[in-house]
Amino acid sequence: EDQVTQSPEALRLQEGESSSLNCSYTVSGLRGLFWYRQDPGKGPEFLFTLYSAGEEKEKERLKATLTKKESFLHITAPKPEDSATYLCAVPISGGYNKLIFGAGTRLAVHP
Amino acid sequence: EPEVTQTPSHQVTQMGQEVILRCVPISNHLYFYWYRQILGQKVEFLVSFYNNEISEKSEIFDDQFSVERPDGSNFTLKIRSTKLEDSAMYFCASGSRDRGEQFFGPGTRLTVL
After folding, report:
1. How far apart are CA B45 and CA A32, in angstroms?
2. How far away is chain B from the Cα of A64, in angstroms, using its nearest Cα?
3. Which residues, in sequence order, are CB contacts of B38 under 8 Å at separation 6+?
4. Which tens digit of pLDDT belongs to each residue from A73-107?
5. Torsion of CA A90, B23, B79, B30, to 10 degrees
6. B48 touches chain A (CB under 8 A)
7. Nearest residue, CB atoms, B99 vs list A36, A43, A91
8. Does A37 touch chain B (CB under 8 A)?
C-alpha cells in the first residue's frame, strides 16, 4: 500500500539551531516528491519538487534532498518565521496526479 | 504572483443542505484538484479534473459530490446533501503540467451543523 510517513511529528528548535525533517515513502515507481509548508488555517504552500535520487533543491534556509526511500528537509539556522507544519506528498503508484500526503512535522522555532 | 483563490472562506450549513464551493485556479493552468483536510488530520485527495472531465477520484468522492468548470475561470465543488462528517477545510489546487507541482488555494472551511 502506498504510504508517506513523516518524522518527527513535532520539533521545537531554538533560533539558529539547524535540524532535519524526514519523509519516508513506499510507492512503486516514484514520479516526484513534493514538499509544502502549511501555516495554521491556510492552504499548503509549495516549496520543492524532487524527481530522482540524489537530487537537491534549496530555497533560503531550506534544502530538500531525495534518496530511493526517503527525503529530508534540512533547515539551516532557522528563524521564528520558519515555524509551520511541513508536509511531503507523492503521487500514488499507477495514478496520475493524485497526491498522498504525510501527516506533517509541526516545527516551532523559538527566539 | 498568480495564486489560486477560493470563496467563501467559511461556509456554515445545515445537514442535508447543498453547498457549492468555488475556486479560481491560476489562469494558464490546465489541471485542477480538490482536496480536503479534517481538523487535525492529513490532507486527502478528492478529485482531479483535466480537459473538462474527471481524471481520478477517491473513495470519498461519492455520488454526493460533483465538480464543474462552468466557464473559463471557475472550478466548483458541489456537495448535494451535506453530512456532519463533511465538515473540513476544502482546498482547491491547480497545476500547469501532468505530474507537476500543484498550487493550493487558501481553503474554504465548511461547517455542517
Report:
1. 16
2. 15
3. B44, B87, B88, B89
4. 999 999 999 999 999 999 987 666 899 999 999 99
5. -50
6. yes
7. A91
8. no
